[in-house]
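Page 37, continued from 36.
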């Protein structure tokens, strides 16, 4: 059993990182590896569907704060960052809309951060012309990173702020993208660390207490963070601070955030005059 990123990387010296993670899951759950791979395949189908559902059809939701974001971004075209990145952000918005509309999503690691991993892996797969098998291998690596963060820190916005939700999702997605691109286990760890330090201290401040605003924007922006972090790691950049120490720091920072900045809707943009007015109009 692995408990740290360091242990994961060390175990991957003689076998692929995804094999280490699947073997560990098989031992823990007492299930055959084929069953575990099948489960990943099913979850990937849910992720793909949520990332595409709102691209053309805005999703209905309570408040409607983010309804139509995905379609709006998708119709924007290439923009300043290019068509691929714009489409990735649209897919992240799509999953966020589906979640806000009580549709079917795959929490990765949470519902509020569900758009990041599918958007990044779909974008990387398109760029790399990756096979379904390679995508599932990347998904496994992402979940392995998520498991370590869950064991040693938190993925709850109420406990650690948005850095724990969207930040963890970005770290997972970055590591998965590196795996898909053929990067080493060490590079996966570097991508995880870089993605986390890029959003260290990010607060959770949902307007009106709804998982809509600013959550959807952070799904889109942290997708960009994840892909950028993957490219940095693949280029040979080193975070210098080991991933496990970055995870520990993220947890400590999150626990020290004032309660107003941990999913209470009492601080940040939720506490602005407009944020309060939105809440009043929706709920009185």
């Amino acid at each position: 059993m692995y408990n740290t990123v360091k242990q994961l990387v060390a175990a991957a010296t003689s076998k692929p990182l995804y094999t280490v993670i699947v073997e560990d899951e098989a031992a823990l759950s007492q299930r055959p590896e084929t069953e575990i791979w099948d489960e990943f395949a099913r979850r990937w189908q849910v992720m793909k569907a949520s990332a595409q559902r709102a691209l053309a059809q805005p999703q209905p939701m309570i408040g409607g704060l983010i309804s139509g974001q995905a379609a709006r971004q998708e119709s924007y075209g290439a923009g300043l960052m290019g068509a691929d990145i714009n489409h990735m952000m649209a897919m992240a918005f799509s999953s966020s809309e589906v979640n806000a509309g009580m549709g079917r999503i795959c929490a990765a690691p949470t519902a509020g951060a569900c758009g990041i991993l599918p958007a990044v892996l779909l974008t990387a797969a398109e760029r790399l012309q990756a096979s379904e098998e390679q995508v599932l291998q990347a998904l496994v690596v992402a979940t392995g990173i998520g498991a370590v963060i869950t064991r040693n820190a938190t993925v709850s916005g109420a406990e650690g702020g948005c850095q724990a939700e969207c930040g963890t999702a970005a770290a997972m997605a970055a590591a998965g993208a590196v795996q898909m691109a053929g990067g080493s286990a060490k590079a996966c760890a570097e991508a995880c660390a870089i993605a986390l330090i890029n959003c260290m201290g990010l607060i959770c401040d949902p307007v009106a207490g709804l998982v809509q605003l600013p959550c959807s924007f952070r799904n889109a922006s942290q997708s960009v963070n994840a892909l950028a972090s993957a490219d940095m790691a693949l280029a040979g950049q080193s975070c210098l601070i080991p991933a496990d120490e970055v995870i520990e720091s993220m947890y400590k920072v999150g626990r020290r955030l004032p309660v107003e900045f941990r999913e209470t809707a009492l601080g940040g943009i939720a506490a602005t005059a407009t944020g309060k007015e939105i809440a009043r109009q929706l709920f009185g």
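The CA atoms of residues 1 and 132 lie 27 Å apart. Flag for discussion at group meeting. The mean pLDDT is 98.
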